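Agenda item 2: adenosine-5'-triphosphate complex prediction
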Amino acid sequence: MADNFPDLIDMRAVRSAIDGWFNGIVSSYGQALETAFLPVLRLLNGIEDFLLWVPWFVLIPVVALVSFAATRDWRMPIAVIVMLFLTGVLGLWQPAMATVALMLTATLFAIVIGIPVGILMSFSNRLQAVMLPVLDVMQTMPIFVYLIPFVMLFGPGKIPALLATIVFSVPPLVRLTNLGIREVNPEVIEAVTAFGATPMQKLFAAQLPLATPTIMAGINQTTMMALSMVVIASMIGAGGLGYEVLQGIQRLDVSRGLFAGLGIVFLAIIFDRLVQAYGKRVQKHLEAGNT
Amino acid sequence: MADPKIRIERVSKLFGPDPQAALPLLDTDASKAEIMEQTGSIVGLRNVDLDIAGGSIFVVMGLSGSGKSTLIRHINRLIEPTAGRILVDDTDVVSLSKAALRELRLHRVSMVFQNFGLLPNKTVIDNIALGLRFAGATNSRARDLAMEQVERVGLKGFEKQYPRQLSGGMQQRVGLARALATNAEILLMDEAFSALDPLIRHDMQSQLLELQADLKKTIVFITHDLDEALRIGDQIAILNDGSLSQCGTGEEILLHPADGYVKRFVRNVDRARVITVSAAARKMPTITCAEISIDKIARLLSAEDAQAVFIVDDEGQPTGAISATSVAHHTDDSYWRDPKHVLPVTRVSYDTILANALSDVAESEAPVAVVDERGRMIGAISRQSALEAMAGTNGPSNSAKC
Ligand SMILES: Nc1ncnc2c1ncn2[C@@H]1O[C@H](COP(=O)(O)OP(=O)(O)OP(=O)(O)O)[C@@H](O)[C@H]1O
Ligand SMILES: [Mg+2]
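Presented output:
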């Protein structure tokens, strides 16, 4: 294809410099990184093994009960039972649990990383100014791009899949934690300060509790993004429902892809409703307290 | 004034990118708008000097944007001054270290907010215990102390509720109890009752006055509402565009507004509820019983252009009055020496609120005598002088300073 834009600099050189630099990292640190992330892998496998160890006839009622506790609405547990049961019937129980394990682990790490970063960001306008464009880039970068460096570092497998999922799903949580804290009623913050709170007391007594609904919305978005990542992550060996979809594509097996897709939708609905219901409850609790 | 509890010394506050640059302009007669235009700085406070006496309620008034909130926030250093000093019990608040400032906020100065500033996720009792918890009290000890305040403000039975379950008035009682719980001697109240409807507001004022009679805190109270200021304020300061216009008792401000701005403030107030009978009293000629003669009475009446002559006993206490209109009917000295023929006098103490003496003024045929604590006559209020006092058409202007 003819390219009518002149070659101002030799991009091949730049590219090979980047690649060389990254290859250097891979060869010198790859092994160390792999060992470092072994505990993460164990955690992920542990969660997956546990979910598969629990008999389905125990797990389904437990999730149904939790969903009732969160929503206080009897329709929710019924929907949960139907959807999970169907997942089993469709022969997707094992991959579904693998996907849930991946998503839960990714969300867990996203929370552990995202909330503190969001808090720091809310404390410093300068950090916010630096972080917002970084988050923008992280969210607009095509998902596949994340896979490349992680696969190079770790080889195909669950660890790169998990890490790519975390990186992809953490931005909304950082963003919303920052936003939630900044939006806390300034009079409450002033009151807490006037009564002699230290910055830590202020954070834990006022800022975090009052920002909880917004932070919960962030967690919700994070779980949804993690779920949407599972199909892509399966390309690098994450397994689970995504792998089923992938198989469907590769073998042009419509029903296989469709069923696995349904399974993902079911999981998405369940997690979305659960987290949202919890967020709403917290919000209702906080609202109208300060008119 | 003896040592003030809080002393504000030439405090100025400018908001903007370069406050120091605009500082010299504050000493010129440039207006707030001009300073804004020339330097981009917003004048919050301008060379404010105030002494606030311990154990009193000190009210700060002013239009929106006049700097009331800015002023009160300097006392616990929620806002740092651009220039000037703030002394609390001789502690220079501006130079306090972080730790010392925290001590001040934990133990010496507490605050009540317009929209309550309660934590919606904590129960009433835990909200009240907030300051104590920050100070490091254990949960159970903080709750015990908080419980005392729950009872003090009349919220017993509501301590396990959440703020959203309470009415506005009750929420503000939580705010008040929270401020009282730290046992601070100074209470800052920024429009604390402004968000409440009028009846509740009146109740809260009464409750505050009752508490104050008991606790003798130093209260700095901000309000838009002159009636509220006059009701609860021992002293009232009026801010205009960051400068202090006037400071004095409610009566001083009503009777002698320092400038047009203050005048506009006091224009619509029900003066009768604020000023005392002394302010409405006119000097009246007096005469002892032994001195009574028609000639003398006539002379006194015409010399002082008075409506009546009051007869006083040896102590100076009024016993009767002879009105200008009736004296003409009987030209006989002995007639007037007979107590049966003189008008009876109603006496009111000099510190009575005018409104409370109005019915006496209306019913009494003679002007009502105003007497000092020993019952001696100071002056008298006629219907005319009462009306003049209420209309505010008396007295020259002299501004008092705090
Ligand atoms: N943080 C700030 N930044 C810039 N300007 C401010 C800031 N805080 C206050 N001001 C300005 O300072 C002036 C005084 O404000 P302040 O809030 O003290 O007024 P106020 O008398 O309390 O008014 P209100 O009755 O509306 O509460 C106003 O012109 C306001 O716009
Ligand atoms: Mg204000």
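Discussion summary: The mean pLDDT of chain A is 89.
Owner for follow-up: CH.
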